From TrEMBL:
The lineage of its organism: Eukaryota, Fungi, Dikarya, Ascomycota, Pezizomycotina. InterPro entries: RibonucZ/Hydroxyglut_hydro (IPR036866). It comes from the Eukaryota. It comes from Cytospora chrysosperma (Cytospora canker fungus). This is Metallo-beta-lactamase domain-containing protein.
Length: 124
């Protein structure tokens, strides 16, 4: 992981302290097929490279972590239940309808019900 300390983000001395973590600057994405983005398909181009960024924005003892381009995905969703109950789970449109109820209530669920248990879930 590449950590960029105080990147080219606007100074925010009175609002927040932004940090940028570049998880990878050259990630090969095979699951995002180029045909989703352009046509005709190019033979031999079965994926493409793109950066993956993660932002940590802090003010005092309050933090928010934002994973640019984050989306629901069964194989790397993380485990929100490991965070304190005061940590809000922020989701995008359609996630609640697509993901809940989760496992074990829904045996085919792609998330665990414990991910949202005892915490505020807010859609943005």
């Amino acid at each position: 992981m590449i950590i960029i300390d105080k990147p080219c983000l606007p100074a925010a001395h009175t609002i927040a302290d932004p940090s940028l973590f570049a998880r990878s600057s050259n990630t090969r994405l095979y699951y995002l097929k180029p045909g989703v983005f352009w046509e005709p398909a190019f033979r031999g181009h079965d994926g493409f490279y793109m950066p993956v960024y993660c932002f940590l924005v802090s003010r005092g003892n309050r933090n928010v972590l934002f994973d640019l381009g984050s989306h629901i995905h069964f194989d790397y969703i993380g485990d929100p239940s490991r965070f304190p109950p005061a940590t809000e789970l922020i989701i995008g449109p359609g996630v609640k309808a697509a993901a809940w109820p989760g496992y074990p209530i829904n045996p085919d669920g792609s998330v665990l019900d414990s991910a949202a248990a005892g915490r505020s879930v807010r859609k943005i």
